[in-house]
Amino acid sequence: MDIVTAQEMYERDQVAIESTGIDGKMLMESAGRSAADDLEPRIKREDQIIVLIGAGNNGGDGFVIARTLLNRGYKVEAWQVVPDEKISGDAEAHRNIFENSGFELKKFSRMEEFLPSLYQAAVIIDAMLGIGVEGRLRSPLAEIVEKANEHEALRLAIDLPTGLPAGEGVHDFDAFNADYTTIIEAPKVSVFLQHTTPYYGEWSVVEIGLPVKKLPEVKRYLWSVKDVKQTMPKRVSHSHKGKHGKGVMAGGSYYMPGSIAMAARAALRSGTGLLTIATAESIIPSVTSYVQEATFSGLAEKEGMITGQATPELSKYDGAAIGMGLGRHEEAGGLVLHMLQECKGPLLIDADGLYALKSMLNALKNRSLPTVLTPHPGEFAYLTGVPIQEILQSPFRLSREFASAYGVHLVLKGPYTIITAPDGEQRVDMTGNAGLAKGGSGDVLSGVLFGMMLQSENILNALSNGCVIHGSTADFLIQEEHSKTDLLASDLVEGLSRTFRTFSAPSKA
């Protein structure tokens, strides 16, 4: 599913109208009726409903929604909250259809006249402003939104809540606080931003009949379980361990042996054929007890941490990963640089490896093979020098700029994980839950990603699939065996078998 900016959505509407001959009024009718169909299961026959209608396409959708619900027997008051001269074009045509259908349209003039209707409503449908909003709301919309947010009614929004920016990088706004949003045709970028997503509430997307084959490419997609099933590598009957990747993982320390152990076990659970763990010699016995299927390469250590004086031979491996439990000490940089220069396949750098990487970012540009970085926002802030707050407000832009500048694949972890390729293509993973907010969850993700990388020719697909597999495992586990409170990273590792079994099962007709 595509993810769009406001400009991209405008372009899609224009393409539909100009290339196929679809009339704008027809698109608006389709959008409004599809939205009404989506909202209907959330309202009751006895509910008093108020539809707040503004200008532009969003207001036009509001006229269609109000008419559709009235035709179906619901108790609806339609309120036009902008002056008549603000409504033109297709929206004006649908206002005329609404009134010619015999329904009363109330028009806002004073708050004192409007508030009794608002406070009597059990359901508020917001169709005031759509994707074109800029800056803070002005009167009277600012006051209407404030009163609506204070009222204990079910708040439903069309496309995006009034006042909310469609794109990223905007932090100063007022917005309708929806319990549920019906998104028209494609989710907007702001759905996936930490500071704007709460205003949407729950949401779903309705299709309105745009010509899919004619639409311009956006290179920004929501990656789903369906996509995973279509792109995940399949095992053939006569395959052997050498055909599913031979990798090496470097990391771990006396005080953090679990990080490399869980990452390695997750990589093996994800299908890696052969795996070597390169770690401090002193922790090999403890790691072996957890990961019996791996082989080991003992590295020199100082005070329980790998020194970098001895490095694993990389030429015999298809790919490498480094960072999990490595420790943030100066000598770790030598091992990271060795990996960057000598790894003959894809290289994944995570956790403490990212801190060591900070001083050698330009070395990334010298690699012709795929390099994958998997930071959370704090680690990305350290790498870029950009404040965390700015990263959270503009994650798509900053991820794309960094991936392009250094030629890397970037997995920016969070409630919505953004996977970015060097050419700017981006995928978003929505799976997972708050149970993942535990130490070790990121190590397990790195293991899954590494396993997928070793088995796929398409790195972006491998990373996108790995993120969905990891998050879906957490979702399965809290549905069946665990809660968000007690879920552990080690539970994720053992839960992977259920996810792979589910994702590889044939779809039911």
Automatic annotation (TrEMBL):
Residues 9-216 form the YjeF N-terminal domain. K(+) binds at N58, D126, T162. Residues 224-503 form the YjeF C-terminal domain. (6S)-NADPHX binds at residues 57-61, 130-136, 159, 325, 376, 443. The keyword Lyase applies. Keywords: ATP-binding, Isomerase, Lyase, Metal-binding, Multifunctional enzyme, NAD, NADP, Nucleotide-binding, Potassium. Its cofactor is K(+); Mg(2+). Homotetramer. This is Bifunctional NAD(P)H-hydrate repair enzyme. It comes from Halobacillus halophilus (strain ATCC 35676 / DSM 2266 / JCM 20832 / KCTC 3685 / LMG 17431 / NBRC 102448 / NCIMB 2269) (Sporosarcina halophila).
